[in-house]
Each structure stands twice: as C-alpha cells, then as structure tokens.
Write a structure and sequence with these properties.
- The complex is a heterotrimer of chains A (about 550), B (about 350) and C (about 280).
- Chain A is built from 16 helices and eight strands.
- By secondary structure, chain A is mostly helical.
- In chain A, the strands form four sheets. In chain A, strands 1-4 form a two-stranded antiparallel ribbon.
- The longest helix of chain A is centred in the C-terminal third of the chain and has 40 residues.
- Chain B has about 350 residues and is an alpha+beta fold.
- Chain B has a four-stranded antiparallel beta sheet with strand order 3-4-5-6, with no helix packed on it.
- In chain B, a hairpin with a 6-residue loop joins strand 8 and strand 9.
- In chain B, helix 3 runs antiparallel to helix 4.
- Chain B is flat and about 110 Å long.
- By secondary structure, chain C is mainly α.
- The termini of chain C are far apart.
- The chains are: A mainly alpha (about 550), B alpha+beta (about 350), C mainly alpha (about 280).
- The interface between A and C is large, with 80 and 64 residues.
C-alpha cells in the first residue's frame, strides 16, 4: 500500500477546512475578527477590572483547596507559635494554615485580597470615566446599569470573602452587618435570624457565606460581566471625537492582531502588578487579629475600602431614633438610615442616571461620540458632587486612624465629616461648573485668536499686545484668520502642542524621534481611502 | 462633512475576486475587512524589515521574554529551596512571600511588556474605520418580526379565550411559590425562640440561682480582683459562657474611684437603678447598643467608654448615657452583688435589651 | 543638686517640644524661658535656704530619696506642688502613685510636660535612668504605691496566653498590631513600639492618664510577663511574613495603597499602551 506523505505545513489549512465543513464558522469568524476598536488609555480602565477578576478566579480556586468553611471549634496546633493552643473556629484555623502551613499559600491569599481591592477600585475608576465622558448615553444605558450592579455584586463578593477567615476583624464586620440587618423595620430580626440560623453569630454563617462567595456571587459576576462585554462588542465601543470620527463609525485598530496582542500584554501587566503587591505589601494579617470572639475588638476597626463609605456614613449619623408608640412600642434605629436607606438611594440614583439626564435634556438620540467633561458642565458638576460626597464618607470611615496619626481630635473629625458632607458637595458642584465654563471659554478663545506665544509686541501707539499664533492661515476677511468651530476635541493651548494632535512621532521616553522613513514593503502596498471617505471635514480645520 | 451614508457603503467598489492569484494575502484580508464595512485607511509598517530599529526592538522583546524565563526559574528556585516555614523573629522565612511576589511579578511583567512592545512597536500601525450600523437595521425586518409575535398571540387566541390566560396565571402562581417555599421555609428562623433576643447568659438558672461573673479563663471574681480605675471583661459563669454562643453576654466590670462612684450611684438612683452597683463597682454590657461592637475603650479619668467601630461615646458615671456619636441608647447595666463566698454574681439578668436596636425592641 | 548642665538639657527638651516660630513666637518663648529660669532660681534658692522644713513633717528619706526630692523640687514642684500634694488645675497629687508611675511618666519623657494639653506626649526623657530611679524612690517613700519588680519581666512567658490577654485587655485601644489608636476628644492610646518591658509593666500597674489600671490583683505578674512577651516578641520583634506591613493601620492604608500603587501603576501602563508610538 502506498503511504501518503504527511505534510505538516498543510495541516492547519486542512483542519480548518474540516472544522468549517462541519460548523460553517468561516463567515461568523470573519465578522468576529474584523472588529475595530478605538484606542485611548481611558478605555483600558475597565480591562483592569476584568483582568483582576480573572486573577481572583485563579487564586480563589487555589484557596478553596485548603479552606474549611466550618465554625466547629478546634485547638490550633500549626506553625504559628503565638497562637498555638488557642481555641478557634475551623475556618480561622484553616486560614492560618493557608498562611503558614501551605507552601506559597500566603502569597495566594494576599494576591486574592489585593486583586479584590483592585477589582473594586478599577470598577469605580472605569465608572467615573464612563460617567464623565457621557459614554452611558443611549444606546448604552443597559450596560451602565449592569456596570453599577457589578459594583454592588462585587461589594457583596468582597464582604462575604472578608468575613470567611472568621478572624477578629472580620467577625466585628459581621457583627455590624447583623446589626444592619436587624435595623430594618418590621422584618429585621426575622431576616437576621434566618440568615444567621438563630442568634448572632450562630454556627452556620461561614458555610453559607462560603457557598455565596465561591458559587452564587461569582456565578452572578461571570454572567453580568459576560453580558457587559457582549454588549460592548455588539454596540461597538464609543470613541472620542476627532479627525474622521463620526457618530456612525469607529476609528481605530482591528481587533487582530495588534489590539488583541496589546490586551494580552496588558493582562500580564495587571497580573504582574497584583503579584508584586501580593508579595511586597502585607494585607489583612489575620494572625495578629486572633480568632473572632464577641468581646474582642481593635482600635481602627475598618472594613475594606469599598465598604468604608458605609462605615463613614454610619459614624457621621447622629443618634436619632424614631420611636413608634403603638402597643409595646417600636423603633427605627439610627443605624437604618446610613446603612440601608443610603445605599438604596445610591443604587437607585446611579442606575437611573442615564434616564434622568436624557429626560432633563430631552435627548433621545444615539450617541457614539464621547463628550469632554468641560463641554457638559452640569453633568461634570453633578459627578464632582457625587465624588466629593463619596470621598467625605470614605475618609470618615477612617476618621479614627486619621485622628490618631495626624493628632486631630476624634470628635472634631466626626463633626468635620458631618459638616463637610453637607457643604462640600455643593461647593464642588459650583467650583466644577465654573471650571468647566472657564475651560470652554479658553478653548473658544484659542480657536478664535490662536495660541498664546508669550511674545510681547509693542504697537506704534505704545500699547503692548501678546502675539497669538493663529491656528489657520490668515486667509479670512481683512487679514484676520477665520474663526474655527469647536468640535469637541482637544484644542492646542501651547506652541509645542501645535501639530501634536495628528499622528505625530512621539514616544513615551524619547519625546521626539526622527520620523521613520515609511518604506513601502511589496506585501503591504500603501492603502488609499475609498473616494467617498476622503472628504473629512470635522477634524481637518484644526490641524 | 462626511458625504458617506449607509447606503453607499454597501454598494462600494466592486467586490474583489479573492481567488485571483495576483492578490497578496494582505489584499484578501483587506477585502475581508471591506466586506465587514471596515476601511483600512492607514497601514504602515513602523520599522523597515531588516532595519537597525527592527533588530533593536527584536532584541528588546527577546530580552524581556528571556528575563521572564529567568524570573520564573527564580520563582521556582525560591519556591522549592528557600526556607519557608514560619519561625519566630525576623529571619529569612519572612522574605519567602516577598521573594515569590517579586519573581512572579517580574516574570509576568516581562512577558506582558514583551508582548506589548511587540504589538506596539513591531506591528504595522493602522487606522481603520468601521461603520457602526446601530441604526434600525431594516425597518421591514422589524415589521415582520413584530407581526410574527402578534400572529403568535393571535393564534393562541388569548384575547378570544381569556379564561385560558387567567387560569394559566392562576395555575402558575402557586408553582412560583413552590419554588420559593423550600428556600424560605428552610432558612426561616423564629427570632424570638426562648426569648433569646431579650435574655443573656446572666439570666438566673433553674431555681433562681444567681449567675456568677467569671473571667475569660473561668475563674470567678472577687471585688479585690479589680483595681481601682480598672476594667475587667466578665462573662456569665455558665456552660459556654465564655464563647460566641453567648455573644451578647460579655460585660465590662469597672471599679470606679470614690468620687466617680458617688456620681454614678446618684445617676443610678435618678434612673431607679439604685441597687445596681455594688460598692464602687459597676457592670455595663460590653456590646454597643449601636452596631454590636464591643464598646470597651474605657478612659479611666474621664469615665468615657468609646466604641472603636463608630466612635459612640458613653459616660459611665451617668448610666452609660451616649454623649457623642451615632448611638442613641445607654449601655444596659447589669445589677451585681457579692455572694456569700465573696464572688460577684448578677442579681438578675439585664433589665434592658442587649445589643443593637431592632424594630420590636420595647 | 541639679547641675547647670541638667537644667539646660531640660530647657532644650521643652523647647524642642514646641514648633519654633520666628519673631513673635521667639519673643514669647524668650519670656517663657526667663520666667522658667526665675522660677527655677526661686525654687533652688528655697531648697538651699530652707532645708529643714520638710524634714520635720515627713519620715526621714533615704539617700536616694533625698536625691530624688532635690530633682523633684527643681522640675516637678511647679505643677505637683510641695511634697507632691498636687495643685488644683495644674497637676495631680502623687501620693500613693508609687515608683511605677514615676518610672513610666518620667522614664518615657512624658513628664515633665511641655505644656498643658489633652494628653502628655512621649518625648526624649529629660532625666537619666538613675535620676528617674531617685525620683521614683522619693515618691515611693512619700506615699507608697505600686512598684515595678526587678529582674527579667518576661521570664517563663507563654506567647499564646499573652496574645489572648492582649486581645481582651489591650487591643481595643492599642490596636491588634500595637500601633495605638484614637480616644475621645483628642486623647489617644500611644503606639507600643518605643515602650520597654519596664514601661509596659509600669503602665499596667499605674494606669497612666486615661489607661485603666491593671494591678497585680487583676492581671498577675505572670500574666503581665505573658503580655509583655507577646508585645515585645510577637508584635515588635517578629518580622511580617507578608511583606511591608503598611504601618499596620488595617484596611485604611490598604485602600490607599491599591489606589496609589495599583491604580496609578496600571494607569501609567495604559497611558503607555494607548500612547502614540
């Protein structure tokens, strides 16, 4: 029998053909590969969250191999001498074992915790980008809502994870969580005893939190993230205005090869930064906290940073109780307002914002071009107000640490937070609004009169004027350059920025390089735009 | 302004024959992009093949990949041979995790920046423009789909036969409840079983025997065991008294100075708690009435008790009344006395509800 | 008698304690220094010229006690009054506080105070160990009180008992890591980092300022040894296995770190990635 020669080079093509014969994937795959993504650094912020989520999954799976989600009492007998002989829950003992008796377990734990903090931080930063640039507008309201939900689901994931080791600090957090649940009117005590399986702390909460933390919440996160990304893919990414960029196109790079390569590299960078932080910065040293005991507490008991704003609101709330004198009497504790009502309002306001704004502006059009924050002063100012509110609350969540380390009276810090929470947001609104208007005006001035050169000229009549470099050639009426229209993108404000908006040759470390000779390789002939593309008006005038 | 419209994009130039042997691979790719409404308007190699710049960049990327290999190997070496077991002191084992982090981090950064440099510097720069098509795809399709859905409803005849719809809803509602029932039914717990929210471990045992105050190691407490101006965390002397089973029972026993004790006694009397103190000793619940943290930062000169979680401050000499912060209710006081053997006992259980507030607290 | 040298050192310590402003601040300072010098002179002259007055009121002092009394009359009498009886509104009576209290307050530089404030701060001590011992002896002989025992204060200590006792009695104010924490209205629990064995022991015995008293009746000397060992060995001597400890301030500095290090580094990375090449 004749042996056919095996041709390795033909293998990929052959197997690809075989696959396409069966599944007919060539056309959908071509459409998938041919996808243009706009390039801007701020579009990578969401990716940080996505990649840290991947790291969370990887490290989290490792941790589950060693963690024992049980509250049965054991006597610790591991490597860490200062706790040997101490009675503690199995959950805490196994967390100690991960830290001290599993080789490399501590760095996994620390990477898991750091990536959780990074996940939440990146979500917030990404959300700010989306908000301030108006990327949430129609048709992307759904994705905005999913994004806000991701923050809250991530919040739950973080809190349940923070509680699992059952150490002194997390137990205190759990105690406060139970008090928050208790404070809900009418059903509070029922909900609390149902969750904790009786009176706090009970013996089941860790195993319940465990299944929520490793299955239910990550499942929800994966689902939400998938939909989030799917919608970005379907609706295509927003882009900044600029030369050639319109509301109905995307200008950027095709996904393959360059864009995807950059994404892969960025994932490695995020992973690397998390690994560095996990190794170099100690986080949550549970061995110092001891096991959770209801009578043990530490000064400076704080939750992780993304929960701190709720801790802050709780600290600032005055002790106002509402008593309802019916029957034996009923109460709504002061804890209810800052921990249940406030987050409720925040969820509602943040998810509904796109619709509120559209309604206010009566703007129901599709928007694929981003807005510079200065061009929408009202929204930017509202955002600044919200950010100020959040920052005051978060700082108040750490007000005892601040008071201690900067030697300020604790009571003064509380009062400063109370007053600051009321007056700083409106101030932030006003200041931001004025700043936006000022920046807008400056843009318009530069467009009309040109860039300030710093050259002072004395006129024949003795006056001094500064020479402006007009942005266009002086071919308008009576020798003056024509005024340019503002098109929503950066206006050069300094002489050395002139011409920097186009594809200039600039590097990160070497500011100006010799322009590379653009050699034309035979395989890559210079491409020409289709005729109908050539007339690109919107950006051209500013160059 | 752009003269381009949706319509023109679809007509475009004539589609290329991709089987034309004269076409380069790039031509085919470009044609494919065009079919997906992508116009590659700018495609320019950043470095000339064989140029000095290309060789330099190639070397840089290769170096990064090799560094990754080196650091990954270093990671393995550290992982296997570095002493990692915890030892007292500040020895080499404390460097284990930092070393793992640095080697792993640098390995990942190496491969990351290698790939990034490859993509950013070596691949051709391009600017492509893709049409969005996020307007209504095809009004006719919309109409057809809409009509199809309505046709479905028509055929089922829900309008004509309302009974079917109503009975279906009526039938499905309990099915929904069936799905929820095991979850709710399994989880739900009566919060007031054994009156647990209103009693603590200090509740007198069977036969009215008073419960002793004990320390964390189980020893009962004599008055002489607490220093003047001192505080002691005490627990009910029952089974599991010093455990999280009785998370609401930890109590702070304070031995006040003479003048502070007088103030405290006067305040007690005003509140009708005249006999709650024993000598100069007071006992207040350690569980904050705000959020349940142990409020235990006792300032022995000002007699304030601070809770570290939300900074509520209670004045011990005035029935532990909240004087600052978010708490609104005084800490409950435990009435104490000394039994015939000379140990502290609780006269009765707390007369107020312990811990954070809830709706039905009387 | 106090030598000139000692007096100058005391002055310097006082001056170091306050922010030195130029011009007006300095003039005020000058006035304070002159007043202080005058007071010292007066006090010194008084002790020189009227040595026999107290000797009649009190039992005779030992040699060390006499030395301590001399130091007291120069540096402490302004606030604590003659024979350490205390002066209303300025300084409490020291009768019965014992040498433990002196050892803690003077040995850690908290006394003499730089100025009246919410709480005395730890400063470089004004007196030498020997002088502190003499002062302590004087106060001890005046009215008795708790004393720090000699010898090794951590002998036979058990770390895990110490840890348990630390968490139940100390961590609420000094924090799990021993870094200290805020108390009400500007008061604070200090960091335990600079505290010596004897100072920790003395603080527990005497309950300085707002710290509750943990007498030997309440926490036995053996338990004190456990606590001291836990603080000194586990909290202070043992290295952090997880890398730099961020000051052990808990989640607040961790949150700061994720933004200042993590987010900043990655934003720079994205600027580079998306930047024009």
């Amino acid at each position: 029998m004749k042996r056919r020669k095996f041709d390795a080079a033909a293998l990929p093509a052959k197997s690809a053909r075989a696959v396409d014969d069966r599944f007919q994937v060539a056309t959908p795959l071509r459409k998938l590969l041919n996808k243009v993504f706009p390039d801007h650094w701020s579009f990578l912020l969401g990716e940080i969250a996505l990649f840290s989520f991947v790291v969370l999954l990887l490290t989290g799976v490792f941790l589950t191999f060693f963690f024992e989600p049980a509250m049965t009492e054991v006597i610790y007998n591991g490597s860490y001498a200062p706790l040997r002989g101490t009675p503690m829950s199995a959950a805490y003992a196994s967390s100690l074992d991960i830290s001290f008796d599993v080789r490399g377990g501590l760095i996994m734990r620390q990477m898991h915790h750091w990536s959780a903090l990074l996940f939440m931080a990146a979500i917030v930063v990404h959300m700010l980008r989306v908000f301030f640039t108006g990327a949430f507008r129609k048709p992307r309201e759904t994705n905005w809502i999913i994004g806000s939900l991701l923050f809250w689901v991530g919040f739950l994931a973080g809190f349940t994870g923070y509680s699992l080791p059952d150490d002194g600090l997390s137990g205190t957090g759990l105690r406060i969580a139970s008090a928050i649940i208790l404070s809900i009117p009418v059903i509070g005590s029922w909900v609390s005893s149902s969750i904790f399986g009786g009176e706090f702390p009970g013996t089941i909460i860790i195993s319940r939190f465990f299944i929520a933390h490793v299955l239910l919440i990550p499942g929800l996160l994966v689902a939400l993230i998938s939909v989030h990304l799917g919608l970005v893919f379907k609706q295509k990414h927003t882009q900044w205005p600029g030369p050639g960029r319109t509301n109905s196109n995307v200008v950027g790079e095709r996904m393959f090869p360059r864009y995807a390569l950059k994404q892969g590299g960025f994932f490695m960078v995020v992973f690397g930064v998390i690994a560095l932080m996990g190794g170099l910065f100690q986080i949550n040293p549970i061995w110092l906290f001891g096991p959770y005991e209801a009578w043990v507490v530490s000064a400076a008991s704080q939750p992780d940073w993304y929960v701190m704003f709720l801790d802050g609101s709780t600290r600032l709330m005055p002790g106002w109780e509402i008593s309802i004198p019916i029957g034996d009497g009923y109460v709504i504790p002061p804890l209810f307002w800052p921990t249940v009502v406030l987050p409720g309002i925040l969820v509602g306001l943040s998810t509904m914002y796109p619709f509120l704004e559209a309604r206010r502006l009566k703007d129901y059009k599709h928007h694929n071009l981003l807005q510079r924050p200065r061009d929408v002063p009202a929204r930017t100012a509202v955002g600044a107000m919200a950010v100020t509110f959040y920052i005051v609350l978060t700082l108040s969540g750490a007000n005892d640490v601040i008071a201690d380390k900067f030697q300020i009276s604790l009571n003064a810090m509380t009062w400063a937070g109370r007053i600051g929470l009321l007056i700083l947001p409106p101030i932030a609104y006003y200041v931001t609004y004025r700043l936006c208007l000022g920046l807008q005006q400056h843009d318009r001035e530069v467009l009309a009169h040109g860039v300030e050169t710093g050259i002072i000229k004395r006129l024949p009549d003795g006056r001094f004027v500064e020479v402006h470099q007009p942005l266009t050639s002086a071919d308008g009426h009576d020798g003056h350059p024509p005024a340019l229209d503002y098109v929503g993108w950066v206006v050069p404000k300094k002489m050395n920025r002139l011409g920097a908006l186009g594809p200039a040759i600039r590097g990160f470390f070497y500011p100006i390089e010799k322009p590379a000779e653009a050699p034309v390789s035979p395989g890559h002939p210079p491409v020409e735009a289709r005729p109908e593309r050539e007339e690109i008006g919107s950006g051209e005038s500013r160059r | 302004m752009s003269t381009h419209t949706e319509h023109q994009a679809q007509q475009g130039p004539e589609p290329l024959d991709v089987n034309d042997p004269r076409l380069s691979r790039f031509d085919v790719v470009q044609e494919g992009a065009r079919r997906d409404d992508i116009e590659i308007v700018h495609y320019e190699p950043q470095v000339a093949p064989g140029s000095k710049a290309e060789r330099r960049l190639t070397r840089t990327v290769a170096l990064m990949f090799l560094l990754t290999g080196a650091f990954a190997t270093a990671f393995l070496v550290v992982y296997i041979w570095w002493p990692w077991q915890w030892e007292p002191g500040a020895g080499g084992d404390k460097l284990y995790t930092p070393l793992l982090g640095v080697t792993l981090g640098l390995a990942l950064l190496g491969v990351g920046f290698g790939i990034l440099t490859w993509g950013k510097k070596l691949l051709p720069k391009e600017v492509s423009i893709q049409d969005r098509h996020d307007q209504v795809d095809n009004p006719e399709d919309r109409k057809i789909t809409g009509e199809t859905m309505l046709y479905l409803a028509d055929e089922m005849g829900v309008r004509r036969r309302p009974l079917l719809g109503i009975s279906l809803l009526a039938g499905l509602a309990p099915v929904g409840a069936v799905a929820a029932a095991p979850l709710i039914g399994g989880l739900i717990e009566q919060p007031h079983k054994n009156n647990q929210m209103f009693t603590t471990g200090f509740h007198p045992a069977e036969g009215g025997r008073k419960i002793r105050l004990i320390r964390e190691d189980g020893r009962p407490i004599r008055p002489a065991d607490v220093s003047v101006g001192g505080q002691l965390t005490v627990f009910p002397g029952i089974d599991g008294g010093v455990s999280n089973l009785h998370a609401d029972s930890p109590t702070l026993l304070i031995h006040l100075r003479e003048d502070d004790a007088q103030k405290s006694r006067a305040a007690n009397e005003r509140k009708g708690h005249g006999d709650y103190m024993w000598g100069n000793y007071v006992a207040y619940s350690k569980i904050c009435t705000h959020a349940g943290c142990p409020a235990s930062l006792y300032e022995q000169q000002t007699n304030r008790l601070l809770c570290p979680c939300h900074q509520s401050q209670f004045l011990i000499t005035d029935n532990a009344k909240p004087i600052f912060g978010p708490a609104n209710r005084p800490l409950p006081q435990l009435p104490i006395e000394v039994d015939e053997e000379g140990f502290f006992v609780a006269k009765s259980d707390y007369t107020e509800t312990i811990g954070p507030d809830f709706w039905e607290r009387p | 008698m106090t030598s000139d040298n000692d007096r100058r050192r005391g002055l310097l310590a006082r001056l170091r304690g306050r922010p030195v402003a130029r011009s007006r601040g300095r003039r005020r300072l000058g006035a304070a220094v002159r007043l202080f010098a005058a007071l010292m002179l007066a006090g010194g002259a008084y002790t020189v010229f009227a040595p026999g007055v107290q000797a009649q009121d009190n039992p005779p002092l030992t040699a060390a006690g006499n030395e301590g009394k001399a130091l007291f009359d120069v540096s402490c009498v302004t606030c604590h009054g003659r024979n350490a009886q205390g002066i209303e509104g300025r300084g409490p009576s020291l009768i019965g506080v014992g040498s433990a209290s002196v050892e803690f307050q003077v040995g850690s530089g908290r006394m003499p105070m730089a100025r009246q404030e919410a709480q005395a701060m730890r400063k470089p001590p004004v007196f030498t160990d020997e002088q502190v011992r003499q002062l302590g002896q004087y106060i001890q002989e005046l009215g008795g009180g708790p004393q720090v025992p000699g010898g090794d204060l951590r002998e036979g200590a058990n770390l895990s008992t110490g840890g348990e006792l630390f968490r139940i009695n100390c961590s609420q104010c000094h924090a799990f890591g021993g870094g200290g924490g805020a108390l009400s209205s500007g008061k604070y629990a200090p960091s335990l980092a600079p505290a010596s064995d004897r100072q920790i022991y003395a603080a527990m015995l005497s309950g300085p300022q707002n710290m509750p008293v943990f007498g030997d009746n309440q926490i036995t000397p053996e338990e004190k040894a456990d606590i001291i060992a836990y603080i000194q060995e586990t909290l202070k001597h043992d290295g952090d296995p997880g890398g730099f400890n961020l000051g052990r301030y808990g989640p607040s500095t961790e949150g700061l770190a994720i933004f200042l290090v993590g987010i900043v580094a990655l934003v720079f990375a994205s600027l580079w990635i998306a930047g024009k090449s």
